[in-house]
Amino acid sequence: MDLVPLFLRRHDVLYDFWLGEAWRTVPDDVMRRRPHARLNSIAWNLWHLARGQDAGLNRFVADRTQVLDDGGWMGRMNVPWRHHGGGMTLAEVDDLSQRIDLPALWSYSDAVRARTREIVGGLDPDGLDTALDAERLRVILVDEGLAHSHVTELLETYARWTRGDCVLNLGLTHPFQHLGVMNALASLQGVDFG
Length: 194
Description:
Largest sheet: none
CATH architecture: Up-down Bundle
Number of strands: 0
Order of helices and strands: HHHHHHHHHH
CATH class: Mainly Alpha
Radius of gyration: 16 Å
CATH superfamily: dinb family like domain
Shape: globular
CATH topology: Four Helix Bundle (Hemerythrin (Met), subunit A)
Helix content: 55-70%
Number of domains: 1
């Protein structure tokens, strides 16, 4: 089976079934709440996985502008952050969880999904083994503001990745990992969406 149809099939299940069910089933107050002092909210997880996919595929793989920048999404979502949320303090997570406009986040997530499908549909399989350039990573993480903190660790991690690693990790594996977390967060609050 070719990579593109396989990726898109799993990506559709992620968005149409799992994330779609979360959006349809989980009440706003449950999305915004952290059910334990050491956990993030569902809203934060949704924002984080969309930010990681948007920046990762657009900047690392396709060398395009991010969806975030193409549609005034920071203003629409009512968030002042360009980073992907890794390393945020719990107070910052609370701030994001309470301030984010959830319908705008859902629309942003859909726009990221559409762009990801476009990027993946046009991939040249021969270029997927290309390693990410360390200087370009620094520009994206530092100058463009993708990293909130832990810059050195992120640079070291991504420097070992290829374009294909970005597609699979940030397009599928990472979102599915956070989906499991979100399901547990909802379950802790008495909601089942899967």
